[in-house]
């Protein structure tokens, strides 16, 4: 997204209490599959190689820790240290290196007939004070040390933090699992690896004042403003074991906060008309005991077809710097694949070379498709059958006409549900996210068939719509008016994780836009070669039924492509005709009909529009 808009979005992200239009939506709690989970990508599978071990605890007796369970009895509430798994979610606890005892966080059982989670609690487990420079084994008396531990568990709406203090009063968060793991819910997500090996360099937090260091593991809700909602107090379980403190290695540069993309957005598919220069940035951290010299960022495209390097810097011990590729990569405006690797290098031989290498990535230059998603369905978003919209931002670098919005529906979408797409222009100078959106165009309403959940569904816009460089940024969504909560209705497939602030979901019942952490599979399609052709051969297009759900009145509009006799009927779920609202001869062009539904019973109805060529059927809900 172009830079003028990034500041607006970041403001919304960091000030959610003041701006209710930009926040994070709590996930609804449902049936959870714990038998098949994928390991997260954010945590290394092997412990980081460090210097000398100077302190350790395998949680076999708990004497090094003070537990505050906020008045709860312990066991199934709060922290416990023993060899028994007390929680509802994992019977076997953590598969740690040492085995035996471990620390466990629980908060009741949300799956019980009457859920038992405690509300408005903060559970903490705090270590004894450690005199880091004078610990046995710290012969160098250094405060350049790293904390290691193993963990297992999963996230829902909870906040799992690791904190540190040098005075026992002020606490600094050094790890927030919300930043590292996605949510595990009925619609997707994963548990943590069992175990996940975590390393945190403590030097930036304790240097110069390391004689009374305490480590604390803290659990509470991630949504304090919703503290009376039991769903925000659900805990799967959080397990900790094998905590150790090591002196840092002699030489260790670590890549942190790597970013690639064009003006803050990276796309998986870029049309030839929207190719633009791509930046590569990272913030290397010197976690070793020596200064690191000639530190550089290196990028390699397509096995040496193009390479780039940043300026070189010298990074003092315990310090960060910033590396930006000196030359942007601009892919050729021809259809093709682009694969890159990137890493940081320095003059010294790195003792931990694995954290110099950044995870590679790839994208395609396409003829017509503009996409952010990874094209592999790994989650979903729905609103329990109520109306919602979900989508992504797109920057326009050359004037372009869009004809379709392409989406992927999750296979749990209700067959017969109704979807449509919308395009908004975006003005980042406005005060709220909702105010920043201006409606530009939408697709026809589409009734979902079985074939629609097995691939890409192209939703043709009512009219070809120009997207311009002058406007710059657009927000594109999949939308549904819902079925009143009768089913989950429309379930949008998601793929990968969005950069924070670039995917949102609108919940109509709340009249609120929320941050959407997973990337919805919602794309722009610039291929106009088949636009306007009815793929099923019917003579009816551009069907629109609104409002939906309806109360006393529903409006039906449609376009008759070629002159024809047209009958419009409303049927109930049994197929019985409730009302014949139009039966006319020699009809052509756009038609508008208003139907009084005040006498209709609440439920689902179909509008059937019949011509000699066939019948078009669309669903609406009478409340």
CATH homology superfamily of the largest domain: Galactose-binding domain-like
Biggest β-sheet strands, sense, barrel: 8 strands, mixed
Q: Briefly note the CATH topology name of the largest domain.
A: Jelly Rolls
Cα Rg = 28 Å
Topology diagram in text:
Layout: H1 3-14, E1 23-24, E2 53-57, E3 65-68, E4 77-82, E5 102-107, E6 123-127, E7 145-153, E8 158-165, E9 172-176, E10 196-201, H2 203-206, E11 214-221, E12 238-247, E13 253-261, E14 269-271, E15 279-286, E16 292-301, E17 306-309, E18 313-315, E19 323-324, E20 336-345, E21 357-366, E22 369-370, E23 379-381, E24 388-395, E25 400-408, E26 418-426, H3 433-436, E27 437-442, E28 446-447, E29 456-467, E30 473-480, E31 492-497, E32 503-507, E33 512-515, E34 518-520, E35 522-525, E36 540-546, E37 553-572, E38 577-596, E39 603-611, E40 614-622
Parallel strand pairs: 1-33, 14-21
Antiparallel strand pairs: 2-12, 3-6, 4-5, 5-12, 6-11, 7-10, 7-12, 8-9, 8-11, 13-15, 15-19, 16-17, 16-18, 16-20, 20-21, 22-35, 23-31, 24-30, 24-32, 25-29, 25-35, 26-27, 26-28, 26-30, 31-34, 32-33, 36-37, 37-38, 37-39, 39-40
Would you give an account of this structure?
With 623 residues, the protein is mainly β. The chain has 3 helices and 40 strands. The chain folds into 4 domains: 217 residues, Jelly Rolls (Sandwich), CATH 2.60.120.260; 115 residues, Sandwich (Immunoglobulin-like); 156 residues, Jelly Rolls (Sandwich); 83 residues, Macroglobulin (MG2) domain (Immunoglobulin-like), CATH 2.60.40.1930. Strands 1, 24, 26, 27, 28, 30, 32 and 33 form an 8-stranded mixed sheet that branches. Strands 2, 4, 5, 7, 10 and 12 form a 6-stranded antiparallel sheet that branches. Strands 14, 16, 17, 18, 20 and 21 form a 6-stranded mixed sheet that branches. 3% of the residues lie in helices and 45% in strands.
